[in-house]
Design a protein that fits this description.
The protein has 394 residues and is mainly alpha-helical. The protein has 2 domains: 283 residues, Fido-like domain (Fic-like fold), CATH 1.10.3290; 89 residues, Winged helix-like DNA-binding domain superfamily/Winged helix DNA-binding domain (Arc Repressor Mutant, subunit A). It contains 17 helices and 4 strands.
Length: 394
């Protein structure tokens, strides 16, 4: 029973879990619409499987590192990627950092696997206990902290005093009931928009309850991840909120603190999170665009040499492809050094031969010569640059 519980006096805004969309201003709605559009764009982006896997691994590493770095983990993104690939083994003095990372990787994989296998994904206290248990597995903890067990003592986070320990179990049950009921009512048309709102609100409600002795922030961000994945948001994008919180760590804690001071006013935190999410989505789309551009460029080069299979044609094509890996002008004196393959191809050739090959690539519009050297003409395949639109209608 809610009546006579201490939290109704100390944390009255938790008497009813809710998402009141009437409080959301038009600017935030526009950002939410943009977020949905960009998530759909990423979902439908054609990429080679190996490229898609690489991007997935990069953003998983970013998300895993972010959710632990906020709590003080000092590993670098490259090290997390190595750990994902099974290549990183740290010295004993840093094993705890590796264990924190392993715990989040395992938790992310479990959440994704359950969703993709259509395992029952309803959140309940036991499920949350299991998540927290994995987050804290094999870590050195304070004596009063037990992984996956609700706290039995009061706790303060900065200036925020969490709900009384005696009310934690009741509130966690109410939280799960609200969350499952709210998510079950979403229709497919606007599922992404409302799931983003609910994920952020669920994050806030969870940290206000602060049910565990440790790992509450990490557990909250994993709940957020679970909701976003369940909404159909592509996996790389589901890691972006955690990445943003980490990049703006000081502001993240300030916004959490402010929301607590305002007694349950979530709008400021929602706007902060949505702005960051959209900015991160823009960066991710740009990364995807670059990958698509590179793939299209390589295909363009091969098309230019279609049915040209003489030894010189193969040599010139390989030169073009090797130059394509360099994103700044290369002086003529450095051309032979751009790759081992190019060095071998021109080891017995004169400068005149190399110069003639470069001229052929210029004639094919594959490269261009600048005052600083030779550079590939990638922009030629960007069909809708303004000057190209003008050319097409002349």
């Amino acid at each position: 029973m809610k009546k006579n519980r201490k939290f109704t006096t100390t944390h009255p805004w938790l008497e009813k879990f809710s998402v009141d969309t009437r409080e959301i201003d038009f600017e935030t709605w526009i950002l939410l619409g943009e977020a949905q559009s960009k998530c759909e764009h990423i979902s439908n982006a054609p990429l080679k499987p190996i490229t898609a896997q690489k991007l997935h691994q990069i953003y998983l590493a970013k998300g895993v590192l972010a959710t632990t770095a906020i709590e003080g983990n000092t590993l670098k993104e490259e090290e997390v990627i190595q750990r994902l690939q099974g290549k990183l083994e740290l010295p004993e003095s840093k094993q705890y950092l590796q264990q924190e990372i392993d715990n989040i990787i395992e938790s992310c994989n479990d959440i994704a696997e359950n969703l993709f296998n259509k395992t029952n994904v309803e959140l309940n206290p036991n499920h949350l206990n299991n998540i927290n248990g994995k987050v804290l597995k094999n870590l050195v903890l304070e004596e009063d902290v037990s992984p996956g067990k609700l706290r039995l003592t009061g706790v303060a986070v900065g200036r925020y005093l969490a709900v009384p320990a005696e009310d934690v179990e009741y509130l966690l049950n109410e939280y799960c009931t609200w969350l499952n009921k709210t998510l079950s009512k979403l229709d497919s048309k606007n599922k992404i928009v409302y799931s983003i709102i609910i994920a952020i609100y669920a994050h806030l409600y969870f940290v206000w309850i602060h049910p565990y002795g440790d790992g509450n922030g990490r557990t909250a961000r994993l709940i957020e991840l679970s909701i976003l994945l369940n909404a159909g948001i592509p996996q790389p994008a589901t890691q972006l909120l955690s990445n943003f919180y980490n990049q703006t760590r000081t502001e993240y804690y300030r916004q959490l603190d402010k929301a607590g001071q305002l007694k349950g006013n979530m709008i400021r935190f929602l706007k902060y999170a949505i702005r960051g999410f959209v900015d991160q989505l823009k960066e991710q789309i740009e990364q995807i665009r670059i990958q698509q551009w590179e793939t299209s460029w390589i295909e363009y080069v091969h098309e230019k040499f279609n049915e040209k299979e003489s030894m010189s044609d193969r040599r010139i094509r390989r030169l073009a492809l090797d130059l394509s890996k360099i994103f700044m002008p290369t002086p003529f004196s450095k051309i032979r050094q751009i790759s081992i393959r190019t060095a071998e191809a021109y080891a017995s050739k004169t400068d005149r031969t190399l110069l003639n090959d470069l001229k052929k690539l210029i004639q094919l519009n594959i490269i261009k010569k600048t005052k600083d050297g030779y550079i590939v003409n990638r922009e030629i395949i960007l069909a809708f640059l303004p000057e190209k639109i003008n050319d097409s209608i002349k």
